[in-house]
Specification:
Number of domains: 1
CATH class: Alpha Beta
Order of helices and strands: EHHEHHEHHEHE
Number of helices: 7
CATH topology: Rossmann fold
Structural class: alpha/beta
Distance between the termini: 22 Å
Strand order of the largest sheet: 3-2-1-4-5
Shape: globular
Helix content: 55-70%
Strand content: 5-15%
Largest sheet: 5 strands, parallel
Length: 126
């Protein structure tokens, strides 16, 4: 699993964005999502039917659970980047997950992550 998908890419997929679907399908290697991203998608459900659809979608892909080391990594990232660059808690957890598991983070939010040293980023062009 060399790729970790951020919620914004998966939201585009769930909304039927043809470019996002094609992009995700083109990823040569399998990808995963962080437990934080899964939770963000669940919170974004509009109703129980939407929740069931999202839950079914999430069951198709590996979810990287939070761990003590990911939490510690997120804490370090927040100490380094929260005040200087406005890094938020959820973004720090997603970035720390990618770094801990040596995954490339696929996100549309380059601005949220570009300053993090050691984080491999890919920004889709769809």
């Amino acid at each position: 699993m060399p790729f970790l998908s951020d919620s914004n890419v998966l939201i585009d997929v769930s909304r039927g964005n043809a470019g996002a679907i094609k992009y995700v399908d083109r990823l040569a290697e399998p990808w995963a999502l962080s437990q934080v991203t899964a939770m963000e998608l669940i919170v974004g459900a509009r109703d129980k039917r939407d929740l069931a659809t999202i839950d079914g979608f999430l069951s198709l892909y590996p979810v990287v659970p939070l761990s003590d080391s990911i939490g510690a990594g997120a804490y370090r990232l927040l100490k380094t980047y929260a005040k200087s660059h406005g890094l938020h808690v959820f973004d720090s957890l997603v970035a720390a997950t990618a770094m801990e598991k040596a995954l490339t983070l696929v996100t549309l939010n380059r601005k949220h992550y570009q300053m993090i040293e050691g984080l491999q980023l890919e920004v889709p062009d769809y």
